[in-house]
Amino acid sequence: MDPSPRLGLDADELLSTTRAVRKRLDLTRDVEPQLIDECLELAAQAPTGSNAQGWHFVVVTDPAKRARLGELYRSGFEMFYGDRAAAEAGLAGEDPDYAATTRKVIDSAAYLAEHMGEVPVMVIPCVEGRTDDGNVMLQASIWGSLLPAVWSFMLAARERGLGTCWTTLHLLHEQEAAELLGLPGNVMQGALVPVAHTVGTDFRPAPRRDMSRIVHRDGW
Predict the structure, then answer these.
(1) What is the model's pTM?
(2) How many domains does the chain have?
(3) pLDDT tens digits, 104-128
(4) Integer Cα distance of 108 and 59 in angstroms
(5) Residue 138 lies in a domain
(6) Which of 24, 84, 89, 163 maximizes the CB count within 10 A of its CB?
C-alpha cells in the first residue's frame, strides 16, 4: 500500500498551489524514504544543459547533522534579517495586500529559522562546477541546470503530501556546511530544502502583483 496516497492534483493545481511551506511542516512525523526516492527520480527527469546531469542531492536525516545545519541556517537568518523592524519598514508605500503578505512571510521565515534543525529531512541540491567569478553566461548555465530539477522535486513532493521550501541562508556558512557533509571542492550547494509532511493539504494560489508590472512585450 502506498504510504502516502497521491493528492490527485491536475497540472494547473499543482503549479499554482506548491507553496513555500514553513509553519505547516509537520515536525513530529517521519517521512518515508520511499517518498523522497520517488521525488528524486522525478527530479532527475528535468532538463539540463548539454545533458550534463551534473546535479547531486544530499539527503540529510542524521539528527546531529540536521541540528548543525539548523544552527548554520539560524545564524544566516540572524545575519540577513537581524533588524526585522528595518525589513518591515522597507514595505512602507507598497501595495497594502503585498505588504501584508510579505509581513506574514517574514514571520513564517523567523519560525522556520527557529525550527529548521527539527525538520525530518533536509535535501541539499548541489551541482558540479562553481560560479565563483564566473560571467553571467556561466552562472546562468550552471544554475539553469540545477533549478528545474529542484522545482520538479518540490512539485513531486507536493503531490505526495509533502511540504518544501527553497532556502539559501545556510550558504552564508557554505564552507562549514560543505565540510559537515563531506562535499568535494568542485561541487556547489544551491539550497537547503526542508521536507516534511504538511499539516493539512489545502494550499491555495498565493496573491501576486498585477501581471502588468512583470510582463514586458518586445522590450522593457
Answers:
(1) 0.90
(2) 1
(3) 778 888 999 999 999 999 999 999 9
(4) 24
(5) yes
(6) 163
Q: Taken in order 210, 139, 126, 188, is the CA torsion positive or negative?
A: negative
Phi, psi (rounded to 5 degrees) for 30: -70, 150
Reading the block at residue 199, the C-alpha cell is 499539516
pLDDT the model gives residue 93: 65
**For cell 514571520, what's the residue?**
107
Range of the domain at 149: 11-63+118-205
What letter represents residue 140's amino acid? A
What band does 90 get if pLDDT is binned at 50, 70 and 90?
low
Contact at 8 Å (CB) between 72 and 176? yes
Q: What is the pLDDT of residue 1?
A: 41
Asked if residue 110 belongs to a domain, the reply is no
Give domain status of residue 95, yes or no: no
Measure Cα distances from 33 to 90, 111, 133, 162, 198 in Å.
42, 26, 37, 12, 16
Q: What does the alpha-carbon distance between residue 38 and residue 36 come to, in Å, rounded to a whole number?
A: 5
Tell me the CATH number at 48: 3.40.109.10
Set of cell numbers at residue 130: 562553481
pLDDT value at position 4?
A: 59
